[in-house]
Amino acid sequence: MAWQHGFAALGADFFTELRPSPLPAAHWVGRSSAVARLLGLDAAWLHSDAALQAFTGNGPLAGARPLASVYGGHQFGVWAGQLGDGRAIMLGETAAGWEIQLKGAGRTPYSRMGDGRAVLRSSIREFLCSEAMHGLGIPTTRALCITGSPAPVRREETETAAVVTRVAPSFVRFGHFEHFCAQRQTPQLQALADYVIARYYPQCRAGAANPYAALLQAVSERTARLMAQWQAVGFCHGVMNTDNMSILGLTMDYGPFQFLDAFIPEHRCNHSDTQGRYAYQRQPDVAYWNLLCLAQALLPLIGERDGALAALASYPGVFSAEFMAGMRAKLGLLQARDGDAALIDGVLMLLARHRVDYTIFWRRLSQAVGCGDFEPVRALFAQRADAERWLLLFSEHTTHMDHAQMAGMMLKTNPKFVLRNHLGEQAIRAAQQGDFGAIETLLRLLERPFDEHPGHDAYAAFPPDWAATIAISCSS
Ligand SMILES: Nc1ncnc2c1ncn2[C@@H]1O[C@H](COP(=O)(O)OP(=O)(O)OP(=O)(O)O)[C@@H](O)[C@H]1O
Ligand SMILES: [Mg+2]
């Protein structure tokens, strides 16, 4: 593999070079051939022992210069001081511009009290959800593979170790900037900002009076678009600390995330989030709060407060416009019209009032628009009259539209398959018994979540009762 040294060229203030720590008796758990193709990896090589060892951290990849980077962050609203890649080790950046990172590859100078490891359970969730998000068309870090090892890892119980190989154009987080601001290392802060602009936001240098304010605005707008996509698809991240916010507007760090089952706007998916700070409906506001932290961090470069705040001014407008566009697509509304907002507010209130399954509702509505039979949609509501009122409004609003065209759009927007907690859990339990078949099946479905996949309806069904008892915390 050919490498370049983008982030690595920033120098020793930004990272520590080190080798991953080996794990015994490594074995494959899952692989994504789509990500392998993205990286130009030979499929046969990805099945080799050399690849298995390299992606477990047991053997080198020729030419790679592994490193762990330093960052800081606000966790649950409180400045946490210096953090850093405590268990993620970047192998390097490919010549085509993909950073390759091993998560769970051993201790680093930033591990604090942690063991540098990740357990199989959380690694499976991260691997599958990375690819599921990509399948949904939502910006995300990607995942090439998971390898496992019988090495014990202590959490609430003793589990086993795994390593996920993640791939992204950059793993730089808001927290990287916060770190150098907090340390009052302005030259390093500027070097990082200049690097990010040159590599990922060149338009912020060309023509902008203040490139750092332009960078902040560009990041803010990407983040706004990401939040709109999360909200529209019903994704709850669970740990939106500033060290988990990507400077590229990618979804990153799949911990206690959840795709909503029933539509409950105040839903919290992180068992450790007792205050509900990261509840589903709060995500757009939390992202804005996180952007204020980024603005604060960039202030030494931007120069004045008003300029930094002005750079964030477009956030609410971009979020609303993108969210409306996303919801219009879910409703099959081909162009914007008066009355769209009322229809969208109406359906969200209806779903919240009746706690209807979010994914199933949208998929059934898409099918109903295609065939004209709305009975399966009505059947989702205990009190049908309430649903009937909204369906009437929807039908009046769309009378003159081409329903076949609407349905076509809706079926490409409203997924049949999302990585519900219980599906992940079933795959995890099987994997813990040495059966990785369910991971492969889920990956295949989630890579193309809008396709019907005949014979796999069980993966698109309502969650079983026990799904409500799954408690996912920060422990991973
Ligand atoms: N088991 C561990 N060993 C060492 N450090 C850890 C461990 N778990 C978490 N950390 C560190 O604690 C901080 C916060 O953890 P968080 O759960 O947000 O991230 P993460 O899941 O480890 O990784 P990432 O954000 O890279 O996906 C990070 O600096 C992370 O590296
Ligand atoms: Mg993290």
TrEMBL record:
Lineage: superkingdom: Bacteria
Identification of the protein by name: Protein nucleotidyltransferase YdiU
Catalytic residues in the record: 243 (proton acceptor)
Molecular function via GO: AMPylase activity; ATP binding; magnesium ion binding; manganese ion binding
Upper classification of the organism: Bacteria, Pseudomonadati, Pseudomonadota, Betaproteobacteria, Burkholderiales
Gene: ydiU
Bilayer-crossing regions: none
Keywords: ATP-binding, Magnesium, Manganese, Metal-binding, Nucleotide-binding, Nucleotidyltransferase, Transferase
Cofactor: Mg(2+); Mn(2+)
Organism: Verminephrobacter eiseniae (strain EF01-2)
Function, in words: Nucleotidyltransferase involved in the post-translational modification of proteins. It can catalyze the addition of adenosine monophosphate (AMP) or uridine monophosphate (UMP) to a protein, resulting in modifications known as AMPylation and UMPylation.
Catalytic activity, EC: 2.7.7.-, 2.7.7.108
Reactions it catalyzes: L-threonyl-[protein] + ATP = 3-O-(5'-adenylyl)-L-threonyl-[protein] + diphosphate; L-tyrosyl-[protein] + ATP = O-(5'-adenylyl)-L-tyrosyl-[protein] + diphosphate; L-tyrosyl-[protein] + UTP = O-(5'-uridylyl)-L-tyrosyl-[protein] + diphosphate; L-seryl-[protein] + ATP = 3-O-(5'-adenylyl)-L-seryl-[protein] + diphosphate
EC class (word): transferase
